[in-house]
Write a structure and sequence with these properties.
Distance between the termini: 35 Å
Largest sheet: 7 strands, parallel
Structural class: alpha/beta
Protein name: NAD(P)-binding protein
Helix content: 40-55%
Radius of gyration: 18 Å
Organism: Hypoxylon rubiginosum
CATH superfamily: NAD(P)-binding Rossmann-like Domain
Number of helices: 8
Number of strands: 9
Strand order of the largest sheet: 3-2-1-4-7-8-9
Strand content: 15-25%
CATH topology: Rossmann fold
Number of domains: 1
Shape: globular
CATH architecture: 3-Layer(aba) Sandwich
Order of helices and strands: EHEHEHEHEEEHEHHHE
Length: 278
């Protein structure tokens, strides 16, 4: 994937989650360094150690990985984590924002709890805004680097931001008003920051996965009994996606092969929004 810079990943400490898969993917793809940011700093440290092992196995002996505590809903902590990234590595070439919550318990809006709705937006929407805003400010001050040395016309970049949205950024799943609302807002942040950042050489894109085999999906199964089979029935490929499949998309959008892509909402859903499986 030609990833050669320094990566900053939020939500990278989650066990078997998309953020962790992205961290390991960056390590294997040739990144020079990685900062894993998570509210569970011990889990982030474990991911950093696993990333070091993955980089060593991929013949990247100079790779560095560190961990930092972050609560993405707290602007001061986001500012501190981004500052630490710049202090450790000198710049942020790739940012993947994966931190978020599922927003449960779920149920029809007539019986929904406003405090659950507000908490979901505080973390998922405000957190996305804070990460995108503060990382954009840091990237704007960076010296541009050549994006693709093989191109006839030299292309330069100051960095890329990839935000984890959801297939519910484009459709609504019944009984999940807080999650649907948050993910719709996230793609709005992504598109707006993409157009605002074009002149600075910063690309911003959103990945919109459907049901991926992560602990968050397992939580949804627990919250909504009987959910699993209807979900699989609604995916033409007949299975959940894997965190690694989403990480591959994050690498693509972070690297030079996607140099003409910004402001997109890349749907990764096994055909889910095409219609019911036949």
């Amino acid at each position: 994937m030609d990833i050669t810079g320094y990566a900053f990943v939020t939500g990278g400490g989650g066990k078997n989650g998309i953020g962790k898969a992205c961290c390991l993917a960056f390590a294997k793809a040739g990144a020079r360094g990685l900062l894993v940011a998570d509210i569970n700093v011990e889990a982030a440290k474990q991911t950093a150690d696993e990333a070091k092992s993955a980089a060593a196995a991929s013949a990247s002996p100079k790779f560095r990985a560190e961990a930092v505590y972050i609560d993405v809903a707290d602007g001061n902590l986001v500012q501190s984590a981004v500052a630490e990234m710049v202090e450790l590595f000198g710049r942020i070439d790739c940012c993947v924002h994966s931190a978020g919550v599922s927003g449960g318990p779920h149920g029809p809006i007539v019986g929904n709890n406003f405090s659950d709705f507000k908490r979901t937006l505080d973390i998922n929407v405000n957190g996305t805004y804070l990460i995108t805003n503060i990382v954009s400010v840091a990237m704007k001050t960076q010296e541009p680097e050549e994006n693709d040395a093989t191109s006839v016309q030299p292309r330069f970049t100051r960095g890329t931001i990839v935000i984890l949205g959801s297939v519910t950024s484009t459709i609504a799943v019944p009984g999940m008003v807080q999650y649907n609302t948050a993910k719709h807002a996230i793609i709005g942040i992504s598109k707006t920051s993409a157009i605002d950042n074009v002149t600075h050489g910063i690309r911003v894109n959103c990945i919109c996965p459907s049901w991926i085999d992560t602990p968050l999906v397992q939580q949804s199964y627990d919250l909504v009994p009987g959910l699993e089979q209807p979900l699989l029935d609604g995916i033409p490929m007949g299975r959940l996606g894997t965190p690694e499949e989403v990480a591959d998309a994050a690498l693509f959008l972070s690297g030079p092969k996607s140099s003409f892509i910004t402001g997109c909402g890349l749907i990764i859903d096994g055909g889910m929004i095409l219609g019911a499986k036949t």
